[in-house]
Please model this.
Amino acid sequence: MQCYVRRAILRAMRTTQRIADESAILTVAPLTGAMGAELSGIDLRDPLSDSALSEIRDALHSYGAVFFRDQPLTHDQHLVFARHFGALEEHPIVNGMESHPEIIRMHKPAGESASFGVGWHSDNSFLSEPSLGSIVRAEIVPPHGGDTLFTNMAAAYDGLSPGMKRLLDGLVAVHSASEAYTSDTAVDKYDGDTAITYRRSDAITNRVEHPVVRTHPESGHKALYVNPMFTLHFKDMSKEESAGLLDYLFRHATRGEFQCRFRWQPGSVAFWDNRLVMHNALNDYQGFERLLYRVTVAGDRPF
Ligand code: SIN
Model:
């Protein structure tokens, strides 16, 4: 825990330095002591210089998620921005837009009960090369509710005892989309009866193995890499044997002091690093519409 607090202080010092640094392009305002920062002073529709992109990358790796306000991007501008950070994915199960297959239209019309992204997860951890990051922009938001929670899995790892870290460092977990995408609520989606539609694919039932603790390929930070939506059990252990420890890790990782919460406005853009954070879209806006667009940047095999 001490290490986590020290990192928060170092981050705060870095932020102050950055604001004072005349050459910095972005202003960085941290959301909480644990993670998340709002970046301002940039228009994402403009061509972005190498230094602006490197400030965004640095902030992403330091804070796990970065947020921009008042960015009325077109779909094409959204894609151009995202491509700066890597190749883009087409989701293997959720249908992308016909005009822009790499964009998922995350629409919940007023009154629809089906929802997307509800529950803690790291995007697409059921792939052997899970998504590096997700870049989401909001178009229609409810008058209240519909926030997204994020939690810092590197801070959660740092907060564990040395004995628990030693135990987890050697463990591998099995991930799959099978439970998330075969629930009762998904059936309507396969029939095309909800705003977001799904297609059946082998990606639903495939099982992949990932280390329980992964190392961030750019910053070297170690982070917990298990999530309640897609992690089924530890390798070579049954679900029952795994449940106690997994449940503890999920409760530990989602403690309030590791989190930040983002309140969307039309034109908000969020960019989170799936290698460092889990997120959870809150479904607390019954009777109101919410429309966000998501682009996912491809990642590599966790180690
Ligand atoms: C997701 O991408 O998992 C959902 C994000 C959101 O709707 O806030």
Summary: DSSP finds eight helices and 15 strands in the chain. The first strand starts at residue 27 and ends at 30.
